[in-house]
Structures are given as structure tokens and as C-alpha cells.
Design a protein that fits this description.
The protein contains 6 helices and 17 strands. The protein is of the alpha/beta class and 228 residues long. The chain has 2 domains: 92 residues, no CATH class; 132 residues, Rossmann fold, CATH 3.40.50.
Length: 228
């Protein structure tokens, strides 16, 4: 715990007061999960497995993402090709496999799509929308659909590691016009990668800090400059 505390202390100057750069929002299908029988959560759950697989594919491609609740989406407003919620700025929204969405969720997604936000379905489309008094049939054909691998390949990456990004996790943080990328290798062996033209060796379980532009922070993590 002491060693972990020291490592976390190195991250605080990077994360505190910064905006997380995560341009992809995955809609959280909690309404669909709530509609399932309890047994579907104690045995194989195709709906849950589809969501976990989609998130894993995004993380293995170094896609910066948020899980977006329907209630939060209802408070968002599209502007400049993005949906904006607090400090979050999302240019892409993925609808995972789901059964039902709120009617106003569908309306807000269609509004975002018309405002330049990329909205994609990755999995089974919802069959129902919940209105004020009852469920109503829903035709999801208005939203382009793709298989999960194809949909994820269309998303922006925080850093391009080519095809060898499996089990390499990435987050990006922006403050005062500077962007800091944090990489962690979850594999049991070291990995040598090319991060935007910069050769980097990632040790197992260690965090590597990459910066875009001039970095004045003093986090204690090694700095490597990468191209924007």
C-alpha cells in the first residue's frame, strides 16, 4: 500500500484540475439490464458479454471513452460536432447491444447525429422505447450499425500503437493547452511500441508518461515527447 500510494502521488499533478480527453461515449444500457430476469446475471448473459467485449475492444485500441448514462445524455447539448456534459467532450457515441431506450434518449441521439456527432450501433439494436406510459416499438434503422470490431476501428485513438495495442491501457489529460498521455502495460512482459513516432518500452505494470507540447509539470514520471 505504501508503494502504491507513492505511485498514485506521481499521478496527482497530472490528473488534478485537468480535463480527461475521452471523445467516445458508450451509452450505458442500464434500462435494458433492469428489464432482464435475475437469472440472466447469474449465468451467461449475452447482453452483458456484448458490452464487456465492446469496452475491451475500445481499451485495446487506446480509445478514450466514457460510459454515458441516459439521464446524463438528457442534460447534454450538441455543439460543434460534439456532445458536451460538464468538461466532457464526445464526438462519437456508441449504442451497444440493448433491448430498450427511453424515448427522449432516442430523440437526443438523433439530434446529436444531425448536429455532426457520429452515432453508431455496435450490436443488437433496441426493439423498444419507453414512453410516458408504456413501451413502444422502435425501429433502430435511423442509426448506422456495424459489427463491434468494425465500429471500434472507426473511433479516434488517443495514441496510435498500430495493431499491437492489446492489453495496453491509455488515458489522456489536458490542462493549460498541454496534453499528457499515460500508458500502462498489462502484459507479463515488456513491450516495445511506436507511439506517434516515438519509440517507447513499456515495462509490465508500470506507467509511462508521454507529453504533447512543452510540459512544465513535475509529476516525477519520465517525460517523452510525442507528436500531436
Amino acid at each position: 500500500m505504501t508503494a502504491l500510494g507513492r505511485e498514485l502521488a506521481l499521478l496527482q499533478p497530472i490528473i488534478r484540475g485537468a480535463r480527461q480527453v475521452a471523445p467516445v461515449a458508450i451509452l450505458w444500457p442500464i434500462r435494458s439490464f433492469a428489464a432482464l430476469p435475475d437469472a440472466d446475471f447469474t449465468a451467461d448473459s449475452p447482453l452483458r458479454d456484448d458490452l464487456v467485449r465492446l469496452i475491451r475492444l475500445c481499451l485495446d485500441r487506446q480509445v478514450g471513452l466514457h460510459l454515458l448514462d441516459e439521464a446524463d445524455l438528457g442534460r447534454a447539448r450538441p455543439a460543434g460536432g460534439e456532445i458536451r456534459i460538464g468538461d466532457a467532450r464526445c464526438s462519437h457515441t456508441l449504442i451497444p447491444s440493448c433491448l430498450v431506450l427511453r424515448r427522449d434518449t432516442v430523440s437526443r441521439l438523433r439530434e446529436a447525429s444531425g448536429a455532426g456527432v457520429t452515432v453508431l450501433r455496435a450490436g443488437r439494436g433496441p426493439r423498444w422505447q419507453q414512453g410516458d406510459r408504456a413501451l413502444e416499438p422502435l425501429d433502430p434503422a435511423w442509426c448506422p450499425a456495424a459489427e463491434a470490431n468494425q465500429a471500434v476501428s472507426m473511433l479516434p485513438r488517443l495514441v496510435d500503437l498500430g495493431a499491437d495495442g492489446e492489453d495496453i491501457r491509455c488515458t489522456a489529460w489536458e490542462r493549460d493547452g498541454r496534453s499528457t498521455v499515460l500508458l500502462m502495460n498489462l502484459r507479463r512482459r515488456e513491450v516495445r511500441i511506436d507511439a506517434g513516432g516515438t519509440p517507447v518500452t513499456l515495462l509490465p505494470g508500470k506507467i509511462e508518461k508521454l507529453v504533447r507540447g512543452k510540459d512544465r509539470s513535475r509529476s516525477g514520471l519520465e517525460n517523452r515527447t510525442i507528436r500531436s
